[in-house]
Amino acid sequence: MKKLIYLLSFCLLLSCTKKIFSEKWTQKTAPEEFRARFETTEGNFDIYAKRSWSPQGVDRLYSLIKYNYYTDMPIFRVVPKFVAQFGIHKDSVLNKAWNKFPIDDEPVIAKNDSMTIAFARGGKKTRGTQIFINLKENHRLDTLTYSGVTGFPVIAKVTKGFDNVLKFYDKYGDKLGYRQDSISKYGNDFIKRKYPKVDFIQKAYLLKSK
Question: Is residue 151 over pLDDT 90?
């Protein structure tokens, strides 16, 4: 009975978000390569994604950008000389909608060089919406085995705006990394009240092919 109630509730939530989420978006195939721009509180940075690096990962990144997921979003985990991570939307319903469709695990093709981007994960088939930018060469992430999964497949790399990425506020370190449940539950109000210096992704969008 509880499972039925949960299923009905989730279906109702999805129907309420039909303008900002569709299951079809989780099945989109990205172009073989694409470019996108992220506007942030520290300035813009551009990325280049190549589907052969991680087909399902790049497909998901493409859809998340195309359908405006990365909007008004905190860069909640910035660990100096390691990573800058984001991907928790202020709308908890939207978080649940996308993360109900995690993508399969894939092998690491491109190395986790400085300024490359990969999905965060917590175990088998948990890549969903959270991504991180490598702030330095993190090749150990190519082969690191955690919860039965090896490596963090690169899906894109920053091509412009390196200095802006390195300006993301990092004095909170991993404090917010351990408070992801609160961020997901209470949204940006929690961030702005408790951690007011956090930088934000204002919006992300695809760039036209040259």
Answer: yes
Taking residues 164-172, report their average pLDDT. Answer: 98
Could you count the other beta carbons within 10 Å of the beta carbon of residue 132?
24
Give me the amino acid identity at 174: D
Kindly give, in sequence order, each residue whose CB lies less than 8 Å from that of residue 178, ignoring residues fewer than 6 positions away: none
Indicate the pTM of the whole model.
Answer: 0.91
Our CA angle for 45, 42, 191, nearest 5°, is 115
Q: What are phi and psi of 171, to 5 degrees?
A: -75, -20
Q: What is the largest CA-CA distance in the chain?
A: 54
Domain extents in the chain: 20-206
d(CA 81, CA 166): 9
CATH number of 20-206: 2.40.100.10
